[in-house]
Amino acid sequence: MKNYIKANEWNIIEEGFDPHLNKISESIFSIGNGRMGQRANFEETFSGETLQGNYIAGVYYPDKTRVGWWKNGYPEYFAKVLNAANWIGLKIKIDHEILDLNTCTVTHFKRVLNMQEGYLERSFIAKLTSGKQLQVHAKRFYSIVDDEAGALQYSIKALNFAGTIQITSFTDGDIQNQDANYDEKFWNEVSGAVSDNIAFLTLQTKKTFFEVCTATQVFIQKNNKPVAIKPASTHREKFVSHLAVTDVVAGDSIVLHKYAVQVSSENHPKDKLQHISEQLLHKIVAKGFNNMLEEQAAAWAAKWETSDIVIKGDVKAQQAIRFNIFQLNQTYTGKDARLNIGPKGFTGEKYGGSTYWDTEAYCVPFYLSTSAQEVTRNLLIYRYKQLDKAIENAQKLGFTDGAALFPMVTMNGEECHNEWEITFEEIHRNGAIAYAIYNYIRYTGDADYLAEYGLEVLIGIARFWKQRVNWSAAKNAYVMLGVTGPNEYENNINNNWYTNTIATWCLKYAIEAATYVKDNQPHVYQKLVQKLQLDEFAEFSSWNAIVKGMYYPASTELGVFLQQDGYLDKEQTLVSELASEHLPLNQKWSWDRILRSCFIKQADVLQGLYFFEDDYDKDTLRRNFDFYEPRTVHESSLSPCIHSILAARLGNQERAYQFYLRTARLDLDDYNNDTEDGLHITSMAGTWMSVVEGFAGMRVRDNQLKFSPFLPDSWESFSFTINFRVYVLNIKIGHEQIIISNKSAEAITIKVFDKDYTIAAETVIYIVHKEKIVNIVA
Ligand code: BGC
């Protein structure tokens, strides 16, 4: 765990330069705009430890799978989010010395991520070996207004010397993914061109043939007067550059502006990429750096308006929650249904930008409440568009008749996870995809989604579960064998309670959804029946039989559901009994020892109780929580948030807060020692859930919003804004009162602690929650 980020409500601040922390900071200070993103690499040369990273959404490489023993059904490749051309490059030479923070003395170093306005800033003073000193100030951002563009400003002041400064501004496409399986480079050059102060570099990915054109335009001024720039004579493959040379004396200032666009064949015809990038470049250059930045601040202000959480009385908690929200908004904007949210977003390579069940299980609630409805709808449509591939995927594994198995990891709908336990067995992901449809409709009321897209997906998923279970004569029940639940510290287990539970839920929901569409849109329904060759009677009866006859492992003695058959055969030890040198298990123990132990990586039974809490009474929730949490090592970043919400539900506010702390500053404090690989983007949505679903106890039930809030002792208050259908509400929880503002044009009735309150349009109500007395103030 680290503790070097300075507390501040709106900014992430690093002061003083420690090269050992650089890779962690490169992740933390990442910038992005939903279409592109990059790590906070330095613009100038850096010969120290760095993970260079600039990523473009949807542009990936199918890296051939590396496994020891090939088995039928293995995915051919693991999709890598591609490290794309690095356009920020500046090589700065002062007489004969290169500016490199690894080799000079650095003072006054400060790096700031301004989350309110959406930019990254860095300043420092560098003393070169010769004793020459310069002061640098750099600012850059990826525009969320022009989402194929970015810009940077880089100022250098000569502090104590006279000499010559050479600046080479470049775009380097000769880069490699550090996680490449065969050390292969993934890009080929299509073309490169440099003229005046503009450079183009078009690269094509091997195998997938995506093309990306990176165009930059550079302007340099010395003491407010233009400095001549010319194409540099070096001609390297996949590399374009410009050169400017100027003499300086002490006190002179050089200011460079570099505008960049990266346009891809995902969005434009290949033969027009250069032309389109040129037009876009013109557009942003005409706006200018400061105007672009002003637009950026205004666009971020609009995002904060609907997604901010304000915490009073705890600056570190405030900073943390904003950081999580900021990074989620940098990763996914919901404009494009082909894109999704990778566990590391655009901040690193491991897990890359591929889609996991994380999206449906964790991210959907965040986007539902903080963004327009289309944003989540697009996340659902992403899976709808991949339904054919999910059916193919299931066929490869021997399933038939339209059964769909969505992949555990994917870029384009094909499975690309290369561990068999996950690919073949972690099939609960299908359940989360169905649950997200249900969650979306429950929240938005957009039941038409079922007829248009949802039902088809639900039927494919139901057909899969139908074929995946089998009848056990011994148990006189349906069983599901050979699965891996959310707890990946168990493989190939039988009757994972969570998977069995979500499977039968899917079957029930598919029938309910079909009935709804049949009643409300009979024409659409008939078309679907034909398209899917749905034999309503036979199929629904067989699904119902499974719903009625499924086996759920449980211990009557302990009064808990069992994670799987035989779970109690394991030696029952608690995490608190483990000496600290054993943790984290995934680094300290052999895999087989982990598999044999009772220790749990992340919420498994408890994940099911989180999804379906209304189906169980509080005592059941409590008994299971008290049994499973002490056996959980929380070695997935997705774990603490679910525990926080359940602890809140059980009225254990202290524990809810402790779990929240574990998720909120996971990356800022490098809690798991892995932030250098990239940020835990999808778990950030879990942090938001811990506050809104945990502390505020928000639920949507029977088309109504419900709250049962509490305030962590160390906070003065917290407040958040949510979109709910046609309403915008701001909810503020203080020690004594709850203040709810209805910012919409219609009255709304909500429940607080199970009591109805109607709030007129544009009105605020105050609820004195200790006594649960209400005052309504117009
Ligand atoms: C977790 C999975 C998750 C994946 C990507 C793994 O460590 O166990 O549940 O989908 O990370 O975040």
TrEMBL record:
The active site is at residue 488. One of its GO terms (molecular function) is glycosyltransferase activity. Residues 698-758 form the Glycoside hydrolase family 65 C-terminal domain. Pfam families: Glyco_hydro_65C (PF03633), Glyco_hydro_65m (PF03632), Glyco_hydro_65N (PF03636). Substrate binds at residues 357-358, 601-602. Residues 322-689 form the Glycoside hydrolase family 65 central catalytic domain. Residues 13-265 form the Glycoside hydrolase family 65 N-terminal domain. Keywords: Hydrolase. One of its GO terms (biological process) is carbohydrate metabolic process. InterPro entries: 6-hairpin_glycosidase_sf, 6hp_glycosidase-like_sf, Gal_mutarotase_sf_dom, GH65_N, Glyco_hydro_65_C, Glyco_hydro_65_M, Glyco_hydro_65_N, Malt_Pase/Glycosyl_Hdrlase. Signal peptide: none annotated. The keyword Hydrolase applies. It comes from the Bacteria. Belongs to the glycosyl hydrolase 65 family. This is Glycoside hydrolase family 65 protein. It comes from Pedobacter aquae.
